[in-house]
């Protein structure tokens, strides 16, 4: 009769249990590693979108400043002269008769100049009428150069039509500038607006 060694059989069983536990820990660590990698990838994408949006915001700001230089120094803007109803060229627009803003109509009509930065009117590209300094002539790392439109808004004079007997009231002209900037991708757009009173 052969004697069995009890320590040998229990040791063999223990080694099999250690292997099973090791494999389970390896699976858990693999799942944890994959989770960390996917979280890191998502964080990088979010940071990329944020940077792209900031580039578009800065481009739109540059277009607002360019429009301000256009109004102050180009000599083409005086009152409402040159501003037209359909806003087809030169970026000088009168308000729509239905009250909708021009930039909203450009968005709705899928105007390629406004939506993608193509050289299509009525919006004006950065530097068209201003001859900006070389550092501002073109914005680097953008899908398209920013564009803007200028709307001439006529506001009634102080007191409006309520001042009976004091003669005709003169209206005040203010300009609403709407600028669009693009990020590294043309799908990233930021639209800014400002009012200027000469």
> What does the average pLDDT come to?
82
Q: Roughly what fraction of the amino acids lie in strands?
A: 15-25%
Helix content: 40-55%
Instruction: List low-pLDDT spans.
Output: none
End-to-end CA span: 114 Å
User: What's the story with the biggest beta sheet?
Assistant: 5 strands, mixed
Topology (SSEs and partners):
Elements: H1 6-73, E1 92-93, H2 102-108, H3 112-116, E2 124-125, H4 134-137, E3 147-155, E4 172-182, E5 189-196
Parallel strand pairs: 1-3
Antiparallel strand pairs: 2-3, 3-4, 4-5
3D structure, described in words:
The protein is an alpha+beta fold and 198 residues long. The protein has one domain. It contains 4 helices and 5 strands. The chain has helices at residues 6-73, 102-108, 112-116, 134-137; strands at residues 92-93, 124-125, 147-155, 172-182, 189-196.
Highlighted features:
198 residues; alpha+beta
């Amino acid at each position: 009769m052969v004697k069995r060694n009890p320590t040998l059989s229990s040791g063999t069983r223990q080694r099999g249990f250690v292997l099973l536990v090791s494999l389970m820990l390896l699976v858990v660590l693999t799942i944890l590693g994959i989770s960390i990698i996917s979280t890191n990838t998502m964080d990088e994408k979010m940071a990329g979108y944020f940077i792209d949006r900031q580039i578009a915001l800065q481009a739109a700001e540059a277009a607002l400043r360019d429009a301000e230089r256009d109004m102050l120094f180009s000599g083409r803007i005086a009152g409402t002269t040159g501003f037209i109803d359909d806003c087809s060229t030169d970026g000088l627009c009168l308000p729509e008769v239905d009250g909708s803003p021009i930039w909203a109509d450009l968005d709705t009509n899928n105007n390629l100049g406004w939506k993608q930065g193509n050289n299509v009117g009525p919006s004006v590209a950065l530097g068209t009428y201003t001859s900006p300094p070389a550092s501002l002539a073109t914005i680097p790392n953008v899908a398209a150069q920013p564009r803007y439109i200028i709307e001439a808004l006529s506001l009634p004079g102080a007191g409006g039509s309520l001042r009976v007997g004091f003669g005709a009231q003169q209206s005040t002209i203010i300009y609403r500038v709407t600028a669009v900037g693009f990020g590294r991708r043309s799908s990233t757009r930021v639209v800014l607006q400002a009012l200027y009173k000469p």
